[in-house]
Amino acid sequence: MGSFLHQSPSKRALNANLPYSGPAQTAVHADDAHKLPEFVNDPSPGPGSGMSVLEVLSHLYSSPALQAPDYDLHKGTVPLQHCALALSLNRNPAARQPTPHPTPVFLDPEGTKCFLSLSSAENQLRIQHNHPAQLIKLAYVDHELEKDHTILSQFDTTDFSSGMAHASYLISKKGSLNLPGITTLSKQTAEELLLKDAEEHHCFINTKAFHNHLSHHVLAAYDLGAPAAVLERIYEKEKKLQRPFYLEENHRTDFVVTKDNWTEHLGNRNAYGAYVKFFEEEIKVLGAKNLLETYMLSEDANKDGRRMFVRLASGVSGLHPLIAVGYGLEFGNDELVATGLAQAAVHKDDGHEMLECVNDGPAPGQGISLLEVLSQVYESKALEPLPYDPDKSTFRLQRDALAKSAAACPIVSQFRIPNSPTPTEVSNAIEEIIWVSNLLPFASGKRGRKTRLDFLLMHVLTCSIFLQPLCDALEKPEYQAKFLRAYVAGIIFVMMWRGVPRIDPELAMSPTATPRSPVVNDRGPTAALGDPNDDAAYNPWPAIIEDAQYHADVHLVKAIRGVLYASRRYGHTKAGDIPGAYRDDEKTKEVFRGIGKVDGTLFVRSAGVLMDQLGWMTYGQTKGDWNYVALGWDEAWDALED
């Protein structure tokens, strides 16, 4: 803190807790942060000294200098909207346990309680990162910045600097759905569970490199409004599958990743813990956006066989590293971004041949729709699957697809997103991808056959919810275009992996648009304005959402979130208005037969199929399962029916 002798009279009065009757004060907006005086660079108090955030605000609140006539303190209208308060920050890094999220209570000089509503989690993270210039957002001060910055300098930031081992584990953004039911307790519980998972568990649950889905399940259920008790049950169920953070105790010391050697252990699963620690430190310095640019998209991150973009975005991994990073960006959780990038680092760079084309796209206004891309995949002789072999494992089928993957590049590069797209072009591309990602799992069955939902195609759906958060994080149009083309390549690779299953749009539209749980409302007539037993007056989503929150299958929860997200964005779409459904502007030539009949009810129809296949568990049905057999081959269907 600056010397007391160098403080102005008003500052000395505040610091000495003496009366001060200077001019009224006004709020400083975040945009005025450049006007900060040098106090923000004053050294913070040493460990064990200084004020807590609440003490700083309490001091400011009780200061006579801040009794501005245009602020109603007792109604909580003091301009504290930029207070990135650490109400949930961990002030004891050694314990590494989150503190509660209390409603902040301050006392005025007469002892009257004043409840203030404080928010702005983004700034909260900045404080954790110990950016001194953001301390202005801890309180309201006047434009002259002359009266109370001494108090601000007393804020103890030492707890949030180098001594803090992990990145921010807080949920600082609302999820894509943010459904009612989310509470302070459920948020705090989710944060605690996410941190425990990040600190205690490896990204692979077995030697076959099956992925840890614990954090996915927690956040997907949380976003649907699941109570804290359900989140805890999810954790207890999923943790039984996990392996320790360090697979062997010696990995703790054998692998140490630094800026100088971070490329040396790429592809080594035993180095996962070391990469997590490394990216935790890097994200505290760089922030999530710059971390991704530096370690995923930069030339340095991809030269000499490093291929970090491939390791993250390739469909060979089932999109899992991308999913992990996507959750982190969607919910503003830096810890998940760090662990997702660490997960990418220990994946192999398989599939790089297919991503060679993602840097170059068509000229603006040129190219073809994603549905036309699929049509070309179906027509390509080079991408025809090998003859059906019932003895081939999933991993053998993956190798077969990899051997042909380079042939997909000329098709992927035609997708109509230019190298430097406008925001509208990015939005349009995301819409096309979401439609296709929803069609593939539900339109790739066979008429007259039992409904089967492909496990890997489902990942294309669940990952599509992260397209917008990822594009928002990348910011640069050329990076957004590269990522979206890579996602298209990932879709095509998963299709090849599954034997290139063909979509039948009319099949996807055949299930009911009013799916129901096994128990219906059998109450008699009432004075209510409509009867939920009548399909015309029935909204299926509440029952679906309620059951999905409690479902034991993590992928069901994620898939329901995916179709619900798509419904919120595009559920209003009329038949014939799906982007790219027709080859001509006159809408006379469908890309696929029946695609012109698909409308926004696709998503609720698909949700009903999901619930019927995986089970309405809160109504007593047993948990169903996904299909793990590649159904692009007709022979595979025949074998399943035998």
Automatic annotation (TrEMBL):
One Gene Ontology term of the molecular function aspect: oxidoreductase activity
Q: Where is this region: Disordered?
A: 1-29, 511-532
Q: Which domain of life is it from?
A: Eukaryota
Keywords, sorted A to Z = Oxidoreductase
Regions of compositional bias (Polar residues) in chain numbering: 1-10
Extract the InterPro entries matched here.
Questin_oxidase-like
Instruction: Spell out the PANTHER family in the cross-references.
Output: PROTEIN, PUTATIVE (AFU_ORTHOLOGUE AFUA_5G03330)-RELATED
Can you name this protein?
Answer: Oxidoreductase AflY
- Give the organism, scientific name: Panaeolus cyanescens
